[in-house]
Amino acid sequence: MENVESWKLKIETGEEFRTNEITFHFPLSTFLQMHYGLNLFPLISSNRYYVNENKLMRKLSILLGVLLWDGTQVVFAQTKNITVTGNVVESDTKQVVEQASVRLLALPDSVFVTGATTSSKGRFTLPKVAAGKYVLKVSYIGFMTEDIFVQLSSSASNYNAGTVSLRPNVILLDEAVVTAEVPPVIINGDTIEYNTSAYRVPEGAMLEELVKKLPGAEVSSEGKVTINGKEIKRILVDGKEFFSDDPNVSMKNLPVEMVEKVKAYDRKSDMARITGIDDGDDESILDLTVKKGMKQGWIGNLIAGYGSQQRYEAGAILNRFEDDATFSILGSVNNTNNKGFSEFGDAGQGLGNNNAGSGITTAQSLGINFAKETKKLQIGGNVQYGHSDADSRRESSTETFLGEQSSYGHSENSSLRIRNDIR
């Protein structure tokens, strides 16, 4: 390096020079002139050039700054710092759509960039992406896919796509009817299970009408129930006692509509179940399964009638069935020789003279049943009261002819029978 008057540097082709402990190498002087815009001028000959040192350093600094700026722009353009959010709802009901698929595709070649699913509130938030042009695809089963053009700018770190409404993609089909036959009887071990929906009974019919239609079941005129030759001693409701001493209460007062299944089986006597000692005195049971829909509130039945000669009849029953408890109350009153709504009143015994016949019987009855079951204990009971008042009268006149003679006879008989039962 030469020290000249104007602090110029002499640069020759392929020559190195050192200044301030920095070494520069310029392969060609023409390269400097074309690419760096240095003010080159000849000093001595065409093979030797001089340049101002300050101007050279300033222009090199400008060149370096331009290169750094361009590199910074490229880095910023590729930085993923923009969050895309939005909501998805149904277009008809405006209800939020949960687990809808949200995808972000880069344009122009629709390359998948990122994606997410909507939350329980229908909102989505995509992972951060770089600025650019995209297509936001929102889809869900049963709805048409929505495509939304999105242009993201590096000047905004958040982009709200707003509310995306999905339209139903409905294809109407003809009505489909599925039919199947319900097995009327299922035998499970020693238990016979009857499905009530397999047997047709009149609307509003009581349990007695259903039992008469069950295979192997018979109901006598006195109300005695037998299944496969075994007399039914008790009727349970969901495994709980229901007026245990009189099966006719259930037979004549529980509507078929509330019963889903009827199970017939044998079980040990109360004493055997308490003591654990089998006494051989098994009893046949009918166990009614109440429909789930019938365990919500109270179930009742009411009958009433009035006829000629001041004849009347009325009766009602009210039930509440739960999974662990039952409660029932029933009552009746009549003067039509019906022994009671539950038929536990007059048993044909009473006071009277000379057998006056059946006459007219006035009867009243009332019964209450309850049962409660816990994990360790099952309690229950029932109280029944019956009253009957039978009043009968008979009057007869006779005339007997014997030859030319005749005889007359006249008789009157009366009977009054009063009975009160409480159990």
UniProtKB/TrEMBL annotation:
Query: Hey, what's the signal peptide range on this chain?
Result: none
Feature: compositional bias, Polar residues: 398-417
| Family annotation (Gene3D superfamilies) | Carboxypeptidase-like, regulatory domain
Q: Species lineage, top-down?
A: unclassified sequences, metagenomes, organismal metagenomes
**InterPro entries listed in its UniProt record:** CarboxyPept-like_regulatory
The segment annotated Disordered runs over: 382-423
- From the Swiss-Prot or TrEMBL record, give the protein name: TonB-dependent receptor SusC
Q: Where is the composition biased (Basic and acidic residues)?
A: 388-397
